[in-house]
Amino acid sequence: MSINSIYFIIFVAVTCILYFIFPKKARWVVLLVSSYIYYALASSKLIVFILTTTLTIYLAALVLGKIEENTKNRCKTIDDKTMKKEIKHKAKTKKKWVIAITVLINFGILAFLKYYNFIAGNLNSLFELLHFGVEIPFKKLILPIGISYYTLQAVSYVIDVY
To answer: What pLDDT was estimated at residue 69?
Structure first.
C-alpha cells in the first residue's frame, strides 16, 4: 500500500476513527494492530520483523520485571548485607544479559534489513578478486518504513525498564 494512494488515506482515516472511538486505555491496541495491518499489506514478509521486535521487547520487559521482583522478594527475607549484595549483583548480571540479547536480536534485524545486500555485494567482489567459487545471493529486501526509528524506540524502552 503506497502512502500516496487512496487506500492509504482510507486506512489512516479508519485508524483515526477507531483510535478516537476506543477508550484511552485501549488506544495503543488500535495503533499496534494498525501497524501490523499496514506492514502486512505493504509486504507480508515484513510482518515477521515487526512481530519479532514486538515479541522480543515485550518478553524482555517481562523478564526484567520478574528478575527485579524476585530480587526484592529474596532480599526481604535475608538480613545479611553481603548476601543481599550478592543477590543484587547476580540479578544485575542477569538483567544485563537480557538487555544484551534483546539489543543483539533487534539491531541484528535492523542490520540485516539495511546492510545485507551491501555486505553480500562487497563479499562477492572480494571472493571474485581472490578467485573463490562462492557467490552470496542478493535478496529483494524491502526496508520497512521507519524501521530504524521503531527499533531504537523499542530498544530504548527495554533499557528504560532495566
So the answer is: 92
Task: Give 81 or 152, the one with higher predicted confidence.
Answer: 152
Kindly state the average pLDDT of the residues 8-13.
92
CA-CA distance, 64 to 99, in Å (whole number)?
A: 9
**CB 42, CB 1: distance < 8 Å:** yes
| Whether residue 1 has pLDDT greater than 80 | no
Closest CA to 8 of 47, 31, 51, 41: 41
pLDDT tens-digit series, residues 149-159:
888 999 999 99
CA 112 – CA 83 distance, rounded (Å): 43
- 138: its cell numbers: 542478493
Are 47 and 38 a contacting pair, CB within 8 Å?
Answer: no
CB-based contact 142:43 (threshold 8 Å): yes
- How far, in Å, CA of 26 to CA of 96, rounded? 31
Which three cell numbers, joined as nine digits, stand for 148?
530504524
CA distance 109 to 65: 24
Cα–Cα distance, 137 to 139 (Å, whole number)? 6
By three-state DSSP, how is residue 79 classified? coil
